[in-house]
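Thread: shikimate-3-phosphate complex, take 2
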Amino acid sequence: MKQLIRPKVLSGNIAVPASKSDAQRAVLCAALAEGTSRLTGMGKSDDEQAMLRAVEQMGAEIVPISDTIIEITGIKSLPEGLHLSAGESGLGLRLLTCVTSGFNREVSLTGRGSLLARPMNFFDTVLPRFGVQVSTNNGFLPIKVHGPLQGTDLQVDGSLSSQFISGLLMALPGSRKASSLEVIDMKSGPYIQMTIHTLSQFGIVIENEHNRFTIPGKQQYRPAHYSIESDWSSASYWLVAAAIGHPVSVSGLTMRSLQADKSLLKALIAAGCRIVAEEDLIRVDGSGLRAFEFDATDCPDLFPALTILAAKCDGVSTIRGVNRLIHKESNRGIALQTEFGKMGLKIDLNDDLMVIYGSGKLHGTEVDSHHDHRIAMSLGIAGSIANGDTILTNADAVSKSYPDFWEHFNSL
Ligand SMILES: O=C(O)C1=C[C@@H](OP(=O)(O)O)[C@@H](O)[C@H](O)C1
Ligand SMILES: C=C(OP(=O)(O)O)C(=O)O
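Output below.
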């Protein structure tokens, strides 16, 4: 799909969609619980749909109650000969691989699109140490696992992705023996805190002391009534739009959220913005905008929105953690450099540092999303302040996390 973006003032309020990260965790917890859980605030992104389809194949029963409420009755036993797909979701695939390793069954797992090129070699090295037979396609999909995973004490490397750690934390409580997991070089730590919090809502206990997780065995997931949070990652595009001068506000977010991307507020403050949070609404006053420095190592999904912010700030802004973007839906550092480059923005990638030479000026031209939802959304907001029209190809990539993005964009 091609999207034409005309320069315009984005004015109005946006209620952002559900956090797909929160929703995927909750769906899987509910599928593992004995009994019926009720999830409210579900979204309809591709990643959420893929997780729902997977747990249904695993034997969970899903009853839609309304557009945003579902009931899930947990699986009784895992069917034989399962072939699961996580769609294009890195999180979905990594959680499902660990969780299905908890059963005495052979399960094969795959995905599509960019997920086929994302590394899975963590499983080759780590799962056998929990007694799981595993084979990958030289560290890529498809994967075959045969559990059951057995609890043990292990040190694991957390530098590639927190998603593997989240997966182990979801699977290990079901093992007969207790485990401890010491995570060395942990990245995206807030996502792991989020996993532990969601697990606690479904009755699972995990202790964490300085990245050493203690996981008692023989735990049983309990059904829950769970309210899925609105998404700080989706909100980042609108909050940055507000910071660069659009009179747009965002509703539905909670300030108490554990979501990593709530850190956007810190970046906005570093860039001289004033945040106004009134009841359910957040507004941003960007009248004092200035070039900024920010470390996004543990909130890597903020890079695309922060690139727009830096483009609008006069002077050189730096964002640390760009090496963490190599294995996302696209190589996001390169994708941002290439596409914003076409719009006249100079970006250097100096090892782990993204250096952005902002001037406040962008020009409209033909750009491409690299089939990456976050690149698509950031180019949309960039196009709104560009000089001239922007044509974005592969704009439909937004459906991975925010299917209504263009409808919301056009409504403003
Ligand atoms: O656990 C999660 O929900 C996620 C963790 C992050 O991945 P990494 O841990 O690989 O940084 C993030 O980029 C991804 O969009 C969602
Ligand atoms: C990287 C992302 O998701 P995932 O890793 O779950 O595919 C994302 O949503 O930006």
